């Protein structure tokens, strides 16, 4: 990848390195595992912007002009498939977001065409994520001292209750007032998991697998764990035994 990037004109580029899945979609878990293994065949560098190009500082120019200059600088180059210039998609942000979610993408980034390039979040761009919702069974909770820090979850695979990761965000005062008494009532001295459970420590508290939670996630990792899970509430109408592992395709 470094050899391909070295063929680009001298500049500072804004982009994102992605690993593509079998359907041609970026996959964060695949990216991590490929980098760890040194596998490069699925890596693609997507170019968004160029705050510095051919010895010129472009940061004060509007995005539309920076994009025009970047396109001109690359138009005569035979770019490899591992480097791709991202084409902007003008139109309704809502429609684009819905399309991205239907395609199984993580979301969209919207930018103001008249905005200069600034580091950090300055209000000139925003990211709208697609957050698939699903059910998981609660297998325990975690604390730091007396403070609640998250849930331990699981799903059924081939009839066995297996660990599926933790949920650490999305909790409100109202949802906690409903959740904590139910966790205490379901408390158990024995791990409910048949496989994959974290090691028991003083800050881990097991429960009987009788509570179903609704969560939103970014994706399943390659190891079958939730990524960026956010708690949305309890599902009292769902039988825990019906909560099985489901892909997001």
UniProtKB/TrEMBL annotation:
Residues 45-129 form the ATP-dependent DNA ligase family profile domain. The keyword Ligase applies. Its EC number is 6.5.1.1. It catalyses: ATP + (deoxyribonucleotide)n-3'-hydroxyl + 5'-phospho-(deoxyribonucleotide)m = (deoxyribonucleotide)n+m + AMP + diphosphate. PROSITE patterns: DNA_LIGASE_A3. The keyword DNA repair does not apply. It comes from the Bacteria. Coiled coil: none annotated. One of its GO terms (molecular function) is DNA ligase (ATP) activity. GO terms for biological process: DNA recombination; DNA repair. Pfam families: DNA_ligase_A_C (PF04679), DNA_ligase_A_M (PF01068). This is DNA ligase (ATP). It comes from Caulobacter vibrioides.
